Structure formats: structure tokens, C-alpha cells
């Protein structure tokens, strides 16, 4: 007979692990409440609104949070490929921008007649009513994809202002009302800022091999990308490989859910199973790393850096003194565009949003929370960040993961839940990236964090009596650290090394630039890598190392970290 199993109490203090109140995931979610009916279902925030009374649905696969058992953070149903009817005009403008084949589309800088004509065409486009889109979530998502691609096409083909070369005196770049008005209507319904995000380039931008059935990790993998800027294979692969990591993440979420069930019981049998699940989780994280590393082969680093990445730049692309983007048609008196907006830009024309980054993917953050990897600033860093706000000119980069843009150094705005009042300078990169995730995913991460699992305290408690459990836990963290080390290699190849070189003649041609002499081409550029920023606005060199080191710190028996970004 199977002995009756009952839940074990969570080991009590000193092992009970509480996330510090200033941990990014201890903050309450930000809500972008829809103001109109949402017939396909309002993204649920019920667990937060229940003030802790909701059941712990940290099932890690909850439809409530738009997390699918088969696809993880990718939608479980087919993405819309093309809007029709009155929205066809947006799709046609996008077709014209992309061109029919690689090389025939618009080019950054907008120096040619082709870009000029396209922008003129956009200015004549009508402001289309979005009411019909509200009937379907996949259609709303496609609208965000199309409108943000159009916005980035428009901004980056606007010739640089000749009136002043001083960035701080530049005028914000206008986004015509025909793009900005529908974008500002659709974005809050999805809980996103009005800028291109990881959701637009990856989550809502793929089709599986058989589009007539649901995507799945076993039989129907993501195989096609719907929208790109350049039409290049490199760009498609960049998005597709990210989608493949997401679908591999579904299995990691499943293992985390099973582990949580065992944690609840925490008897001998459960500890054995937990050990097995943690080992499997380590393997799955290694698989995610392997998929990520295929970028090295499938994406051309030069094309990525010079041709593709510049399209991603958001309104904060020029750093602290960026002029930002001016969303025309926005009422000046209520000019907040998104919960992601810094209080410093509210009421101002120039909105500073960051461009897309895989740091906006919820997957690695979910694994971090589950394994209790803490990315919140240390006391020392908080002090330094506060100091930075008081003396903004002393140093631009004070905390590795603190936004380097002074105007963004405030924590995300409070959202009526009594939180978010952290001192200025505390908003870490991850806190900021939360605001660039679709609302249900953001809520999911916040839900997980406000119901912290007793995994680490339990592992520490049983470390002496159950060394295999501690080894399995550390093994999962080791895999996560390996992922971060491999990712740093990717960043080194795709960003740091490319920043030092001139683009080759082939790529210069694709960029619409004149060829260089052999001597000029061979010349290495002087680049201070501590100054290089990610598209998410981070001072990437310090930031990535810090994320890696935080992973090591969570280990019960930390081993040494290795790779240095050079
Ligand atoms: C060519 C490929 C890639 C490049 C150049 C790249 C670059 C970067 C950069 C520069 C950052 C710093 C944050 C920022 O954007 O400001 C970052 C962060 C991040 N990236 Fe990537 N990335 C790539 C692919 C990926 C993929 C495929 C994944 C997911 C599997 C990923 C996951 C992350 C995560 C989770 C972070 C946050 C930092 C961390 O948690 O360690 N990246 N990436």
C-alpha cells in the first residue's frame, strides 16, 4: 500500500527565504487597464487584485497568464499573418517598406528618393479606427507588430536634423498620427509600450511548420518569420532561433511546475523526485543554450550589427540626451503613453522608450525566480545609485544594471498598489524590461515572485543529509550560468567585435554606403567596450557579467565563473 503523503511544512526561519522588499519582483505589477470592452478576454491580473487571497496558481502554465503548456510564453494558437479590410493599408505600407526581396527595401538614414516617397505616402495615410480589432487578441497583437515596425521604419528613415548637431537640442522625431494614434490605442490593451518589443519580433511573429495546427516543441516547431526589416536570412534566423528557445522553455516550465508540486510535499520521495526534476531542468537549460548558440552559425554578425540592429533603436537610442520620439495626435494634457514611461518624460514630447532586447523574454527571468537568482542591487549599489541622482554629472554609469539614462533612473511609476516607491536609481534593467513584456507575462513573473518558492531554503536545509539534491540544484544553476557565459560569447561576437570593425564592402553596399579603400577598411575603430550599450539601454559589459555572477551566488556551493567579455 502506498503510504499516505501529506504536505510538509516549509522549513522555518532562518531558512525561510523572503525576497527583499526592494527586489524587482517584489514590486507590484503595473496595470494598463483596458478602457473598452475586450471581448476575447481581458488579460487577467486576478491574483494581484486578490491581495494575496488568490490560490497560488504558480502552475507555471496558466492560461490566465497566457503561458501555454505546449508553447510556454509563445502563443498556443496561430499568430495572425496579415490584417485585412480597413487595416490592409498598414500591411501595404509595411510591404512597401520591406521591399519584395532582401536589398530592395528602405535603408536607414533615409537619404534616397525611395525613403522620401515612402514617408510622404505614410503622411497621407488615414488615421484608421481600431474598434474592429478588439474582437480578437491575435489581431490586436498583429496590429502592435505592424504599427511598431512602421514606427521604426518611419523614425529610422527620417534624415538626421541638420539644425543642430548637439543631441540635447534636437527636436523629438515625430511619428505621424496615422501610426501613433492606433498604436497608442492598441498598446495599453496589450500592456505594452508603443515601441517594438521582443513580443513583436519573436512571440507574435512566427508560424510553425504546419500553420493549421497548434505549435509544439515535439512536432510543430516555429519555422517561419512573418515580418522583418531587411528580408535577410540573418534577421529571420535571429527571431526564429529566439522563438525556438522559447518553445524549448515550455519543458523547463513544466519541470519547474513538477518541482513545485514536490516541494509542497517535501517528504523523502518528493526530495528524490525533486532531485530528478532539477537534473532534468539543468539538461533543458543546456538545450536552450545549445539552441541559442546556433545563432553563431545561422546569423551573420556583420549583417546583424550594421544592417539589422540599427532598426531596433528606440527613442532612447542616443543615450541620456536622446531627443526621443514625439507621438503625434497624443493629447498634450494627458500625454502619458505607457506604464513604461519615466515620470521625467510625462508631459514632454520626446518619449524615451528602449528598443527590443531578448532581455524582455520572460523565460530566463522565470528560471531566475524559480532558482532564487537575485538581481536586485546591493546596498552599496543602491547608495551609489542614489548618489548618482544627487550628483548626476559625476558618473553616467553607477550601477551595472541601473539604466544609464538619468531620465530613466527612477523606479517604474507606482500603480496604485502602494509599491513602486523605491528610491530613484533603483530601477534595474530587469525591472525596466518587465514593462516591455505583455501584461499577462509581466503579471506571471510578479505572481511567481510574490509567492516565493521555498526551493533554496529547502535545499540548504537538506544539503548535508541529501547532497544529491544540493548537487542537482547547483547543477541547474551551473547550466544557467553556462547559458549566460555562452550568451556573453554571442554578445562579444555580434556586438563588441563588430563595433571595432568597418563593415565589409558587401555589407556597406547593402547599407547604401560608398566603398572604402582597402586601408580604411582594415582600420580598427577605437572602442571603449564599457561604453557600449545594449538595445535595452544597458551598459552591457558590466551588466552581463553581473547577471552571470548573481547566478553563481545563488549556488549552495558556488564554483568559479570563467568567461570575461573582451
Ligand atoms: C545575436 C544574438 C544576441 C545578442 C547580440 C544579444 C545581446 C544582448 C544584450 C546586448 C543584452 C544586454 C541587455 C540590453 O539589450 O541592453 C542582452 C541581454 C539578455 N539577453 Fe541577449 N542577445 C542575443 C540573443 C539572445 C537570446 C537568443 C536569448 C535567449 C535565449 C537572450 C537572452 C538574454 C537575456 C535573458 C538577457 C538579460 C541578461 C541576463 O539575464 O543575463 N539573448 N542580450
TrEMBL record:
Keywords: Heme, Iron, Metal-binding. Heme b binds at residue 487. Residues 1-12 have a biased composition (Pro residues). GO terms for biological process: 'de novo' NAD+ biosynthetic process from L-tryptophan; L-tryptophan catabolic process to kynurenine. InterPro entries: Indolamine_dOase, Trp/Indoleamine_2_3_dOase-like. The keyword RNA-binding does not apply. It comes from the Eukaryota. Residues 411-423 have a biased composition (Low complexity). The keyword Iron-sulfur does not apply. One of its GO terms (cellular component) is cytoplasm. Residues 1-22, 35-57, 336-355, 404-423 are annotated as: Disordered. Belongs to the indoleamine 2,3-dioxygenase family. This is Tryptophan 2,3-dioxygenase.
